[in-house]
Amino acid sequence: MSETVDWGPIRELARRVSTTGARLALTTEAKALLRRTASEVGISDSEAESALATEEGALGLLCEESQRIREGSHRLMDALHRMHQYKDKGDFGSARQEMRDVLKVEVVPHYRALAQGQLEDMADEP
User: Fold this and answer.
1) How does pLDDT run across 31-80, given as a tens digit for each residue?
2) Distances from the Cα of 27 to the Cαs of 31, 33, 42, 70, in angstroms?
3) Does residue 1 sit within a domain?
4) Which residues belong to any copy of the DUSAM domain (predicted)?
5) Count of domains forming the chain
6) Could you tell me if residue 115 is inside a domain?
């Protein structure tokens, strides 16, 4: 399946900046975290580097990363819930469609891999 991701640090940074109004200091560590997270959420290296050129751009990058993590998680969890409801009723076609619908819109590789794994797990079902 997909590799384990640790989005705790990026979530904490986003929370600190958004709730306290703290300035996003572009330290070497912060830039490294933003770069790593960008690739983990489907943002190209060139987009990330361009954003990291300014504090405003880095803040936008942080917001976009946080949003992709949050929205992708909600999308996948909701679809998994519906998928299991369909499976419990024996409706594997609708269950598979839930994961296909996630794959149509999801850009975060980790969430895509999870949805693809669920879809593959149902391959032998009617």
Assistant:
1) 999 999 999 999 999 999 999 999 999 999 999 999 999 999 999 999 99
2) 6, 10, 23, 24
3) no
4) 6-122
5) 1
6) yes
